[in-house]
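The freezer alarm interrupted the setup, so I double-checked each line after restarting. Inputs confirmed:
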Amino acid sequence: MANLDTIEKTKEMSTTAKAGSAPSRAPRVAVAGVSGYAGGELARLLLRHPGMDGSAPIFLGRARETAADTATTIESIHPQLAMIGTKATHLVEPFHWDRLSEAGTEILFLALPHEQSREWAPEAIERGIRVVDLSGAWRLQDESNRAVYKLHDANPALAAKLQDEAVYGCPELHRDEIRTARLVANPGCYSTSVILALRPLVRAGIVDLDCGIICDAKSGVSGAGKAPTSKTHFMYAADNLSAYSVFGHRHTGELLEQLCLTADQIQFTPHLLPIPRGILSTIYLRLKHAMKPAEIEHLFREFYQGSPLVRLHATPQLPQIQHVVRTNFCDLGFALAEDGKRLVVVSCLDNLLKGAAGQAVQNMNVMCGWKEEEGLL
Amino acid sequence: MANLDTIEKTKEMSTTAKAGSAPSRAPRVAVAGVSGYAGGELARLLLRHPGMDGSAPIFLGRARETAADTATTIESIHPQLAMIGTKATHLVEPFHWDRLSEAGTEILFLALPHEQSREWAPEAIERGIRVVDLSGAWRLQDESNRAVYKLHDANPALAAKLQDEAVYGCPELHRDEIRTARLVANPGCYSTSVILALRPLVRAGIVDLDCGIICDAKSGVSGAGKAPTSKTHFMYAADNLSAYSVFGHRHTGELLEQLCLTADQIQFTPHLLPIPRGILSTIYLRLKHAMKPAEIEHLFREFYQGSPLVRLHATPQLPQIQHVVRTNFCDLGFALAEDGKRLVVVSCLDNLLKGAAGQAVQNMNVMCGWKEEEGLL
Amino acid sequence: MANLDTIEKTKEMSTTAKAGSAPSRAPRVAVAGVSGYAGGELARLLLRHPGMDGSAPIFLGRARETAADTATTIESIHPQLAMIGTKATHLVEPFHWDRLSEAGTEILFLALPHEQSREWAPEAIERGIRVVDLSGAWRLQDESNRAVYKLHDANPALAAKLQDEAVYGCPELHRDEIRTARLVANPGCYSTSVILALRPLVRAGIVDLDCGIICDAKSGVSGAGKAPTSKTHFMYAADNLSAYSVFGHRHTGELLEQLCLTADQIQFTPHLLPIPRGILSTIYLRLKHAMKPAEIEHLFREFYQGSPLVRLHATPQLPQIQHVVRTNFCDLGFALAEDGKRLVVVSCLDNLLKGAAGQAVQNMNVMCGWKEEEGLL
Amino acid sequence: MANLDTIEKTKEMSTTAKAGSAPSRAPRVAVAGVSGYAGGELARLLLRHPGMDGSAPIFLGRARETAADTATTIESIHPQLAMIGTKATHLVEPFHWDRLSEAGTEILFLALPHEQSREWAPEAIERGIRVVDLSGAWRLQDESNRAVYKLHDANPALAAKLQDEAVYGCPELHRDEIRTARLVANPGCYSTSVILALRPLVRAGIVDLDCGIICDAKSGVSGAGKAPTSKTHFMYAADNLSAYSVFGHRHTGELLEQLCLTADQIQFTPHLLPIPRGILSTIYLRLKHAMKPAEIEHLFREFYQGSPLVRLHATPQLPQIQHVVRTNFCDLGFALAEDGKRLVVVSCLDNLLKGAAGQAVQNMNVMCGWKEEEGLL
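Predicted 3D structure, all chains:
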């Protein structure tokens, strides 16, 4: 288990790293949990990442020291990745801390269940390894929001300390903190789509919060994970649409924290779409004062200037899921009623890319001082 | 062209008919426009309708007196309907008024573009034929709402008179008027899903209209019609979701009129789902005073008592598109926030059945004094 | 357990029944295993069956005498069936032999795993109940073909006797035997599509069997059953196509037995289609002598004269899955090469209807002396 | 119009080019017809191609000198490509020969209807521009096979000459000829999947051709092109499967020529799958003599040694469409019956990539003396 002292020390190291310019060499990177959908996409992105040349990422399974201890390959888990990219190895090894140490791993992606991430992230950081965690384990600062994950910390003081320094890994909002972070909590897929749509508006103070913001979100089935369940059965999902977790989805806490809203100021309803991937969020809000479309557009453009992975559609064009699937972009568009007050914002992204693995690599790029979009266009 | 006198006379006749009990014989029925999706479903329902035994419906094309004048068959247009039902004939004939007169047609379904319906409905009524019109031509009483259809009337006075007596064909709301109506304007598919979800609540006066009602609706592709366009191309619709006609969909007028709301009290956004059929509307509203789920449920149950084609899900269960596809039901469910004020209503139906052909047959059943659900369960 | 004597007796009874004309009353029917896809369709068909008026079918679960012993409803398992049909009850009760006896059950549908069917069918027949079994347990006469099911019989002699009298429930081939059968083995979905396509040709002796018949079949996902597995996961099946069980699918035995072919004369390859339901089989064969399309068509028409649930497409039109989904038909069509020798037959059906529940009801109709297509058009 | 003399001269130039090693700079490339599906994929591949750095491809529309003559952008046609890649420009210009000349275009991709390709390819070659043509215009050497395209040549002698030197652009078969070719006829999507599956076997002389080879192929809807038709309507293609062009598909000629077979030795049946992209071909054949799986596998491995874009599955694993979609690979696998004689080969590829744009870029790579897989992994 990590202790507070070693944690302090690694922190200094990563702060130093920050000062430097683009590194002359690729970081030594590992991924724990490549078997899931996000893990597979992460492997694909890293195998093709131009910055990773000469430094093969290490792929690890979910289980710590398996009985068998035998390695497998990426393509035996994700056949579509066979011979993908130009990296030498496609090996997937059982998880060992020693393996990471020997390899001098600098950045570790955790694509694991949140309980496991909550346990492993501290240990990684103690070992001087920076972490990008794709689970919900570290995203929420407010303990009451975090309660939904039912997390249990072996070392609560340490966990609290790490939680405190964990950075919400949305580069468009927290680019500077991510640069030097030891623990980056990669955002939820739904949350990313809603936060990127709302942050410029809420921050500008133009939203009438009395009526509440309505977020009607729709996601493809990969968001439900790889485990076969009655809800991920083809016969349930195909030719269907269903709302779920009304008033109770666990991504809601991220919206509250990142947008600085209270629970009755924003309402989030997810739906399960009969498609493999992609999220479209339709967001309804009222403005305090009548505005013109050009003013709204200007506000978005200004906010996302310098954010290469957000694309803004000129009104009246709206993004669609098809535009973003298999890309690392979040697309935004909007429609303003004639009264200049009722605004509909539409936000789209690929839940496995900008909503998970793509954003994780974007965070890695920022952590390495590289161009944010490197390997993601 | 019809004139006001003959119109008056037919009206008396149908009022007389009303007094009677269930007719001892099947009505003589015809369908104009069987080639579209709604027309095909109408044919299927009529061919299987137990009340129609011994009285084959007449199927007619869209074109008046075609050059060729040759008959075709239902199955050459809709191969899946070959040998369906137990009726003798599956013939589709070119449209002739004489053919209808000879056959003594009593009820004519118009599954036609709205311009054509606006022209043909008066002529049918003049000839003493009652009309169930599936287009948008006669649904809207308010001329400004109707403007979206750009209708042109050859005889404006007559059209105005018929418009005045046209009944909005939602049996759950207007059962009594439909019974004797000469012109029934079958509701829009989206409108049906929203109106059935909201009418009990709005009528009870419990909705806080200041914040506005948000209707986020999603429909399968059959709602876009049979014409091949870039939007109905498989490559556009599949694996996709897109919002369209934001602040401008032509079903909005029906919501305003049937729910007695103003344009800033309700907002409607349709989306195109990558499925053949089905609509799910997620409706967001705030209540004036905090209520309990049981009170909401009671309100719905009371309103739809005696309405066999509305199914209410007990909270917290919500309807899904899969539950209603290929049925003639509208399914309703809801979720109430802990504050007892924020309410989400989910409404589902099959856009071609309860949203079109099924509701048309339901109207026919009412017009004939039969059980409303006859042939529809 | 049933013994041979009582079995003999029931047999006599059902032979007597055969002589009679159409029964004046509905049979007392029960379904064991309504929770699966075929079971749900069976429930739907029986609830709507006009011949069943006044005689509610009994729906039973899969488990014998459950601990809880509490009844549930059809709609809690299949929400889309809520309020479907005009029958009084939608109750699903735990399985009890006593319940069946008290109700005087005459026909029992078994929609169960084959091991369970192999155990329960003898017991039902001993109790004087005729059985329509939807599993693969009783379809194969040849023990070596049956080996694929790894069946274990508690009473091998009895099982052998029943197996001997079991009738392969394809009414188009065995109508007369089905009429009086005590045990009807409802055919496999794939098998039905291939057998109906080939039987008229093979029986006519026109097929050159030296080159072998190739059956390339494609099925929707419902054919894989309701259990969530990695293969029925939406992410596996959607936007995909995969061949499976090449040279080893267990429906092959039915083809051999019903078409009187040897294993090297016919080859069967199934594929998993990314659709909920429907089978299309493309069948390739060579004719001994050159023929004309009209001769082939005549041969089919003659064979299926009097078979209301087989629809033949006039060449060059070919059936499609969309034409048969949600119908009880098997559609056939063919293309003949210019040489008059190479023939492609295309066969389509809905795997849950003509391939399972629909054919089961068709068998019931035949067993009751009713019109074969009653309740199925 | 091109004449034979200038054609001769350009030929020499490109033969010279052949001798050289990998060029030190990117070729000047243009694409005519970027608006279709293959054109869009071609744009995507070129915008991301590492070898193209510093040399923006020129994108041109289909129409020669449009009236408007105004340029548009890739993203206005293919919104998903907005900001894709790292190239400076996404402009799409009207087609002008002068534009190509000024730019010093060396390789021109034609993603056009075959009539237009038949007209433009000679002109390009006359101007010293090498052509990769994605249509069917130049693939077939045998005039009777080519008849299906109903081509009309303004200058038949020239066309015949060019046809004669045109190379069938399947690098796995004709790598050497492609290297120096002036006119590369990019193969059909279906043809690629079948030819790559069969060539190693047929060439080895192990196939019993008397019984004929059966190719049962299934393709996603993008293969049908971007024009909205009744067959590409979502309602036609979704939840459906249909065979078409039985005994008459125009890709058949490519199979005959590239596999040196006669029309009665191979039979090809395409089907329309309800998915956006991907082809799976199931191919049935008999071997002259019994073989072992390892022998078949060895034969494939040997043939495709040095072919980086063909992936072979070790038996009994078979490729699936999902494995190849959005990749530039053709995946092969097979199953051999116990008799060692009946062989089923399964071949998968993405019809827009290895079946069109990906193979076109592969050809460009070969023509440039680059690694065949450059930009394609």
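Quick read of the result. Chain A has two domains: 4-187+356-367, 189-351.
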